[in-house]
Every structure is written in structure tokens, then in C-alpha cells.
């Protein structure tokens, strides 16, 4: 699937799976708008995208702190200054907090975890919704986590991370229903821990995968591309995964 006519916004694209998404969307030809907490982190990924041969006017880097409403608004305004529409918003940003002991995280850790994952997702979606509504193929993709599934207890993530992911799950559930009549598809992914191997590796497309292997970032990207590539009458609401 080629994406040369898609304009894509990815939050938390400065490292890890956000970087993977940026590189893979760009590799399919999409125009990408990348954010990270610092402009330097977003610029580093932009340089990697450019090194793949992507045109300089089709990859843009921005600073955005998802815990700060003003920063989210400024990010959306900066994107709106460059384009009149967004076709895909990927809500990837969410701070991970480790620790099965509720007392192990500070107040600041708890607030930042909830603000980046829960509040940040709502703020970013709200800020970019006008641009999405200008598209004839709008999709909102949210990377939730198995921690957002009711009854999930297999992660060592902190309770605050579970709370943030549960909030994302509730938000995307109602958003899917309320935006359907406007043609906006809301797609949520609930992966367990997964192997985020380097998307620039030659083995990315060819590495063998079996039922005994952990889920890979490649599989998650494939799921996203499959969902957004469907005809507009096909609303794939969520992807859930078995955990090895």
C-alpha cells in the first residue's frame, strides 16, 4: 500500500515505536509530521527519514509536550500552517511507568504518566480533529496497550500506566461511535509487550516470524496499514493480541 497522498501526524515520534512509525509511514510515501517532547529528538528522526531519500518538504519535526495543553495547541497550529488537512493521526505518546507496587512511583510520576497518556491523547485528538474533518479519508489510530483491556494483569507496568491506558480505551470507544457519522475511523491497538527491532534493518521485511515468537513492531505496523487501507465503509475498531 502506497501512502503518497496521505498526510500523517505521529506523536512521540522521537524514539522507540514512534520512530518506527515515522520511518515506515515515510517509506510508504506519506508526508509525515513528527512530534517529540524536544525538537532535537524529533529532528533526529527527521534526519533519519531524509536519509531514506524522503523529500525534505514531506517530513516535518515539531516539539510537543502532551502534558501541556498549550504545547499541544501550538503543535496543531504549526501543522495547520503547513497543511489544510490531516489524514491520519497516530496517538502514540504515553509515558511508560514501571513497577507493580503502587507506592513505587512519586506523585510527579503518577501525574506525568496519566497526563501524557490519557489527557494528552484527548488533547491531541481534539486539537487535530478540525484538520481530520477536512480529509476525505480521516483515521485516528491510538496505541493503547494490553494494559487497557479489562482484566489484564500480566504486565509489570505501574498502576498509573494501567489507569492511563484504561482511560485511552474508554475515550476511543466513545469517540468511535460519535465520529462514525462524520466518516472518521477510530482504530485502537492493544498489544502486549513487543519486540521493537530496528526498522532500518535489512531483516525488517524478511525476518521469519512464528507462533512462538513475541509480537513484533513490524506486525503492529502491518495492522495499522491494513486498517487504514480498507475501503471507507470498513471500520476496524480495534486489534487485540494473544500474549505468548
UniProtKB/TrEMBL annotation:
Class of the enzyme per the UniProt entry, highest EC level: oxidoreductase
Lineage of the species this protein comes from: Bacteria, Bacillati, Actinomycetota, Actinomycetes, Kitasatosporales
Family: Belongs to the short-chain dehydrogenases/reductases (SDR) family.
Organism expressing this protein natively: Streptomyces sp. R33
EC annotation from Swiss-Prot or TrEMBL: 1.-.-.-
Name listed for the protein in its UniProt record: SDR family oxidoreductase
InterPro entries: NAD(P)-bd_dom_sf (IPR036291), SDR_fam (IPR002347)
Keywords linked to the UniProt accession: Oxidoreductase
GO terms, molecular function: oxidoreductase activity, acting on the CH-OH group of donors, NAD or NADP as acceptor
One Pfam assignment: adh_short
Gene3D superfamilies per UniProt: NAD(P)-binding Rossmann-like Domain
Domain of life: Bacteria
Amino acid at each position: 500500500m502506497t501512502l503518497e497522498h496521505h498526510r500523517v501526524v505521529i506523536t512521540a515520534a522521537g524514539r522507540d515505536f514512534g520512530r518506527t512509525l515515522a520511518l515506515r509511514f515515510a517509506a510508504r510515501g506519506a508526508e509525515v509530521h513528527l512530534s517529540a517532547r524536544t525538537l532535537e529528538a524529533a529532528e533526529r528522526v527527521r534526519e533519519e527519514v531524509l536519509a531514506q531519500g524522503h523529500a525534505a518538504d514531506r517530513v516535518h519535526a515539531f516539539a510537543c509536550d502532551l502534558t501541556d495543553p498549550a504545547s499541544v495547541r501550538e503543535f496543531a497550529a504549526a501543522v495547520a500552517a503547513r497543511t489544510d488537512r490531516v489524514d491520519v493521526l497516530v496517538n502514540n505518546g504515553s509515558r511508560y511507568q514501571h513497577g507493580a507496587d503502587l507506592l513505587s512511583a512519586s506523585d510527579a510520576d503518577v501525574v506525568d504518566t496519566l497526563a501524557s497518556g490519557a489527557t494528552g491523547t484527548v488533547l491531541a485528538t481534539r486539537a487535530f480533529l478540525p484538520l481530520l474533518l477536512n480529509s476525505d479519508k480521516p483515521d485516528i489510530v491510538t496505541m493503547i496497550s494490553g494494559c487497557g483491556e479489562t482484566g489484564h494483569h500480566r504486565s509489570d507496568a505501574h498502576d498509573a500506566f494501567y489507569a492511563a491506558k484504561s482511560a485511552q480505551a474508554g475515550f476511543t470507544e466513545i469517540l468511535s461511535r460519535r465520529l462514525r457519522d462524520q466518516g472518521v475511523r477510530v482504530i485502537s491497538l492493544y498489544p502486549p509487550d513487543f519486540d521493537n527491532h530496528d526498522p532500518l534493518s535489512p531483516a525488517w521485511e524478511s525476518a521469519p516470524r512464528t507462533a512462538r515468537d513475541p509480537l513484533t513492531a513490524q506486525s503492529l505496523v502491518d495492522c495499522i496499514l491494513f486498517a487504514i487501507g480498507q475501503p471507507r465503509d470498513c471500520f476496524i475498531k480495534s486489534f487485540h493480541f494473544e500474549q505468548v
